[in-house]
Amino acid sequence: MVQSKDSGRFQLFDHGSAAANIAAYGSPSPPDVAENYARLRGTSVDLIAGVNDGVIGPENIRVHHERLLNAGVDVSYKEFEFGHLDFTFAVKEDLKLYMMRLLRK
Q1: Which of 48, 28, 26, 41 is nearest to 71 (CA)?
Q2: Neighbouring C-alpha atoms within 13 Å toward the C-beta of 101
Q3: Which positions ≥6 away from 14 have C-beta within 8 Å?
Q4: In angstroms, rounded to a whole number, what is the distance separating the alpha carbons of residues 74 and 62?
Q5: How confident is the model over 58-104, as pLDDT tens digits?
Q6: Closest among 31, 30, 105 to 74, alpha carbons compared
Q7: What Gene3D superfamilies does this protein's entry cite (predicted)?
Q8: pLDDT of residue 77
Q9: What's residue 62's pLDDT?
Q10: Burial track 11-31 (b if 16+ CB lie within 10 A, e otherwise)
Q11: Of 44, 50, 46, nearest to 89 (Cα)?
Q12: Sign of CA dihedral 62, 15, 17, 21
């Protein structure tokens, strides 16, 4: 996360040198993930965000939602009244029902 904040890009891990990045990615800098969103065309993507998430706020997820839409990806977006850890440790009933509905698509 710190690297993304510092670079201003949603990128893969920066190995710290051009040589190390070339070895890992074939380029001197890590690839920007969002620049490759068009590769997801034909795949449904469902994004969820927690309005109480102090780590990755909904405004960040909305940026990716917009970029996915602009890339022509079939993407949905839904916000929940959760914090960051609620998605991992406190599986709430409304989230569970939403996820099950998505899996049945």
Answers
A1: 41
A2: 9
A3: 3, 7, 21, 29, 30
A4: 14
A5: 999 999 999 999 999 999 999 999 888 888 776 778 888 888 888 88
A6: 105
A7: alpha/beta hydrolase (3.40.50.1820)
A8: 97
A9: 95
A10: bbebeeeeeebeeebeeeebb
A11: 50
A12: negative
- Residue 45 in tokens: 């993507």
Quickly list H helices, the chain. 2-7, 18-25, 58-70, 93-103
- Judge whether residue 1 has pLDDT over 70: no
Taking the model in full, what pTM does it have? 0.78
Q: CB–CB of 84/58 below 8 Å?
A: no
Tokens coding 65 = 């939602």
Residue 53 and residue 30 in contact, taking contact as beta carbons nearer than 8 Å: no
Total residue length of the chain: 105
